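Weekly puzzle thread! Below is a chain. First person to post its structure in token form gets bragging rights.
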Amino acid sequence: MEQKLDLTFRKYRIESKTPIMQPNPAYVTELIELVNHSPYPLHLPFKLVLIELDQSRIALEIMECHMQPFRMVHGGVIATLIDTATFWAAFLRLPEDNGLVNVDLKLNYLRSVSDGSLIAAGRCLKSGRTLSYAEASVTDAQGALIAHGASTLMAMPAKGIRLGVPKFLE
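Winning reply:
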């Protein structure tokens, strides 16, 4: 008897032990500005274009400086996009005074790319008091999957980003 495979996509339920608080739009705006004017994003360059509860988007226009000798984007550039997208996808679940650090990054390179733009879409799958788990996919402008990865992130108490406005709405 022939079995049929169920190939439908399932929506993941975000698991969280921390209470869900509503992010302050003014904080999010200030955060995006801070990130996009920080040294490493300016150096590569890439931009944080979206950060919401449990998701983020990072954009990069491919330039000559991103190429390795075989005229493809260097894997380190793509790893940076996955690392950054997973980080910011998990960030808004943290209490205001907490920071975050990546403790594990796993990724698969699925296709090479040499020109155009890249988008890394991050999604937090589990958020806890100490550890969070997030994934990210990197696609090109046509939507082709270039790479996929996952990250385990650790909360760092008393290392939050203070921006002069509250992180959460009352």
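Puzzle host: Confirmed. Bonus trivia for everyone else. The longest strand covers residues 145-156.
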